[in-house]
Structures are given as C-alpha cells and as structure tokens.
C-alpha cells in the first residue's frame, strides 16, 4: 500500500507531497507469465492474489501457480516452455510432480539472483513507473483495481512485451 515515487514537477520551492493516511500491512501478490509463439503477438497472462484469502495465506501457493499455468495452456493452445526463477514455491514437491505429469510443459530454472534474465521483472518495473507511481491508495481494493488496469493496458502493448522479452535475450527482435 506504500506508493512508489517517481519524478514530478511543481513550482520552484514547493516540493510535491503525497499524503498517505496510514501504513497498512495489507498487500497484493501478482503472478504473471510473459508468453510468445512464433508468428503471433506476445501475450501477458496474470493473476492477482489479494492477502484477504479464506485460508489466511498471504502469497501464492504452488496450487495457485499450477492454476495459472493451466490457464495459460488453455489460452495459448499448445505446449509451454516455462523459464522460471528460483522462488521457493516454484521448487516444491507438489509443483515438481505437476510438471513431471504434464508432457506439454517443459521447465528451465533461471540461475539464482538473476532478475535481469526474467522478463516479468521488467513488467513489474514498468508498472511501478507508470500506473502505480506517485499514487496513494485509499484502500486495498483501489490498489487491486489499479494493478489490474495497468496490467490490462500492458496486455495490449505488444511492442512493450516484445521489448521485455528481447531485453532478456529470450526473443530476437522482429
């Protein structure tokens, strides 16, 4: 809920101030897959996960990632080669069993501490610098709405998605 800051303009001697009513321990987790298929525009598949869940969990479980991958498989209609970072949830026994049972899913792990090789990290950076910058959120629902709107706008910017993939070397420029 704490807003990221970016550059802004104001009259000389009057520093812009963003008022935040109070600190909140609420948060929002978002998982995303940046996908491409030869001859088709790049796609962004995402799923937000607010921390107000019935089971009390505040982040994604391996089952949530499983559902996201399954959803992407249905949307893309073909086999998936997944390049993943080393998040502990990605490495659980349940996730390894799920991957082993799917012949349409191939997974490669990124080396540890290599965010520059993960194109989704660039998506988060763009989102923080555009939709979320210099904005104080009134409540967690406002944050969720803003993140969804920002990601939806990015879904239609295929040039930006291609740039994120090209920047990591996973795709060559068209």
From TrEMBL:
Domain annotation Tc1-like transposase DDE: ranges = 5-143
Judging by the UniProt lineage, the source's domain of life is Bacteria
**One term of GO molecular function:** endonuclease activity
Alphabetized UniProt keyword annotations: Endonuclease, Hydrolase, Nuclease
Protein name as catalogued: DDE endonuclease
The root-end lineage is: Bacteria, Bacillati, Actinomycetota, Actinomycetes, Kitasatosporales
């Amino acid at each position: 809920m704490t807003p990221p800051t970016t550059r802004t303009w104001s009259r000389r001697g009057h520093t812009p101030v963003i008022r935040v009513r109070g600190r909140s321990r609420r948060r929002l987790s978002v998982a995303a897959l940046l996908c491409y298929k030869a001859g088709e525009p790049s796609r962004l598949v995402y799923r937000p996960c607010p921390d107000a869940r019935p089971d009390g969990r505040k982040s994604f479980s391996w089952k949530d990632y499983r559902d996201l991958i399954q959803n992407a498989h249905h949307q893309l209609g073909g086999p998936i080669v997944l390049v993943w970072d080393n998040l502990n949830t990605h490495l659980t026994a349940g996730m390894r069993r799920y991957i082993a049972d799917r012949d349409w899913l191939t997974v490669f792990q990124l080396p540890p501490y290599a965010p520059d090789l993960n194109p989704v990290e660039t998506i988060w950076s763009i989102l923080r610098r555009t939709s979320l910058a210099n904005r104080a959120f009134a409540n967690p629902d406002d944050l969720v709405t803003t993140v969804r709107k920002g990601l939806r706008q990015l879904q239609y910017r295929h040039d930006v998605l291609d740039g994120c993939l090209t920047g990591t070397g996973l795709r060559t420029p068209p």
